[in-house]
């Protein structure tokens, strides 16, 4: 009789029934030793004393225990208690493929994704000499987090040559028919020996059913179905009304060959063929079988020629596409973004490889991509894609590396690990990609590629959250980023990247006026120096320190040295290029600043901040029409980006287009939540436009804000310049000099201060800042 809740089998406490079949009953149970829930499978009462059933039950347990693969149900334990034999497996949440098919048809791409996962699992089983022999939708489980699991190895058989189970019983004999009608291979129907190619036939039946919405060999009786398996061909997929790529039809047809020798020789080969179908989108009718066989031979020969003739040629360009956050939980978005960004950064260390920058690939975030089209658009030879699922302390990462020119998979892997292993997984992905691209990095480069910044998973997770918020670049987001970087350091005081992130967030506190320079600059400098002390090759740390030396210390040669070092380490670092352009601008080398800004944009074409800053360089150089064009392009990329509206407003103002200027600057004030820097620019525009009362209101707003939080004296000086109150403007510039306000570094070149150029007091400030020609 069924087990009731509260019953104990060994250490396991039965909680509730999950399901029952002809060969077993499955229960949800709890393992109090590890405080986790598991699934417990027992033989039904009618088979409890059947020696053959007991032997098959034990055989299944041994078969599963011999395997360890993310697409195969994992077994934890096996035992006997109170006369009941039981097996303990991982507890799955979701439904069988049969349940899914009974509810709705599935698109062909989903069929391919399922087929790849099943083929990978079968390949692992076949490598151990284990043949499933009963593959069908009832034995394929779709977990709620998007994975596929192969269940029920009750009819599994060790191949005679397998070293994995030489003593395992072979429970069937020649002439015995084992399997499920409709999914058995012809050799199973005949009762002859079934090897790995039998599972390939069964998987072909499953794929056909997913795609067509009907079984490949469905007849009124089991006898008629088995006869059809031996003699009939399945109806063409086109007759089902489904649009399916011709490549997928050929793959399924190759699985369903009557002669095992004419099928795919291995599940691994089948998986590669399925992956290749995702690279194309042609839809066509099936081709004659003999023509298909000839094509297979030709393709095999072509592949061999390509492998032997071309394998030594490295692939020198790659796009790491944004990893998909499966489930779309915004609380785990930092993880998929962070893994993508870290892989971009790590692989960029390889000097022979051009890696597409973050901003460009992130424009594809949330979109379904065609590898060929993406490769052509980004001018790369290969793309790396991935999917991430986090459930508690479990992590599933699926990756695929595709040669977009050849439309073929170079490598693919599924990692089903604990979250604590995320660093090792990322290192492995980077090394595998390097190997499959045939880059042959030098020993030092390989060491750098696999180098982990921390062994502390908690610290790494906090760092990813910090980078996630830092990239959003507002005052509120920078404060959150700063908190996460500091927490990461608290977890691991030797974490160089976390110190670099902390330095960069404190450095931008000055720009976004989160804290006064007196508070933020010492902390920024200390964090940057600590990061470099830990790892001198951190480009981010050198770029951050260069910016800090410029904005906090007015140490122009020191800033230049650090920025040059950052660009030596990573010439494609768009942020370092932007900072370097600013250093040229500070010294009045405006053409060089513009050239560096363009190089930064070439390295990172869709970076909003780099694009807007190039517009500012053009504005400062008085190339107003070019500046307008550049800033309008930035706004086209993202109409909500406030700095583009700020700089465009400044350009309009210099051209005398005051209505347009005020309109842009109002948008900047609104978008920034009324931040002082934007209120200051709007107040100046009001004053220049003759709207004195509105300018004075902006000034009063700044002075009121200064009572609540830090407002740079420079911002107030800007409004006084618009009002033509030079004495007041110079008074606040002196305060900004004492304060080391960030924007003081551009005093020599900022057009808003042109009317002060001849004033000795203004020249004295420049002299003390070492900014005089």
Structure write-up:
With about 775 residues, the chain is α+β, with helices and mostly antiparallel strands. Among the domains are: about 10-90, Phosphorylase Kinase, domain 1; about 95-310, Transferase(Phosphotransferase) domain 1 (Transferase(Phosphotransferase), domain 1), CATH 1.10.510.10; about 315-450, Rossmann fold (3-Layer(aba) Sandwich), CATH 3.40.50.10070; about 675-773, no CATH class. It has 31 helices and 17 strands. A hairpin with a 2-residue loop joins strand 5 and strand 6 (about 85-90). Helix 17 runs parallel beside helix 19, helix 23 (about 610-620) runs antiparallel to helix 24 (about 625-635) and helix 23 (about 610-620) runs parallel beside helix 25 (about 640-655). It is elongated.
* Number of strand segments: 17
Task: State the CATH class of the domain at 94-310.
Answer: Mainly Alpha
Would you tell me the overall average pLDDT?
A: 84
How much is the radius of gyration in Å? 33 Å
Q: What's the name of the CATH homologous superfamily of the domain at 94-310? A: Transferase(Phosphotransferase) domain 1
Going by CATH, the architecture of the domain at 94-310 would be Orthogonal Bundle
Number of helices: 31
Helix content: 40-55%
- Report the uncertain regions: 159-177, 280-312
| SS-based class | alpha+beta
Largest sheet: 6 strands, antiparallel
CATH topology of the domain at 94-310: Transferase(Phosphotransferase), domain 1
Widest sheet, order of strands: 1-2-3-4-6-5
State which percent range the strand residues make up.
5-15%
Assign an overall shape. elongated
Distance between the termini: 96 Å
